[in-house]
Amino acid sequence: MTPVIPAEPSPFAFAPARSALVVIDMQRDFLEAGGFGESLGNDVSLLASAIAPCQAVLAAARAADMLVIHTREGHRADLSDAPPAKVQRGPPGQRIGDPGPMGRILIRGEPGHGIIDALAPIAGEPVIDKPGKGAFYATDLEPMLRNAGIEALFVAGVTTEVCVHTTVREANDRGFRCLVIADACASYFPEFHATALRMISAQGGPGGGIFGWVADSTRVAAALHPHREGKAA
Ligand code: C5J
Q: What's the CATH number where 128 sits?
C-alpha cells in the first residue's frame, strides 16, 4: 500500500523506491562554534534542535532502503568557484577562506566543512559538494535523482530559509515533489524558520502547497516503518 503522511496542506502519498531523503548542510561550519555561521554573527546553538529529528528520519529512511543524499556547502581551496560578492561578506579575517578554529572557513576538506559526527553519512550515501545555496546549482544532483527514478524529495537540514528553501525551490522548478521535515530543519532566526515553512505549504490544496508539503519527523518516520515491516515480512 502506498504510504501517506499527514502533512500540511494535504496528505502526502509517496513511493519509497521513488523518493529520496536529502539532508542539507548539517556541517560543523554551520552548527559549531568557530565556523562560517558564527563568523556571520549567528548563535549556532539555535541549529541543534534539528539534529535528533534528522537522526530519526535518517534511521527510518535507511531502514526503508530509501536513497539518502547529504549536501555540504563549501568552496575550492583556491576560491575559484566562490563569487567575490560571497567571499566579501562578513567581517575581514572571518570570511570564506580565512583561517578559523576549524580550519579555513567553508573550504572543502577542512574540519569545519565536514558533516557533524551525529549525522555522518554511511557507505553508499552520496555526498554532494555544492558551491551555492541550492543543491541543484553547479552539482550533479539532478542527474543522480533522475537516474535513480526519484520523483519525491524529503528535505531536512539547515538553514530553513536559506539552503533548504533554495533547494526546494530549485527542485520545484524541476518537477520534484518536496516534503520539508519541519523539526529536522532549523534557522539562526526562529521567526524565519516558521515563516519559511509556512511559505512551503501556503496557497495549498490537495496537490500540496506552492512549494510542497510540511510534516514533522515523527510522521515521516512512522510512515516509513510500515514499509520496512512490509519488506521484512
Ligand atoms: C547559509 C545554508 N546559511 N546552508 N547556508 O549560508 O543555509
A: 3.40.50.850
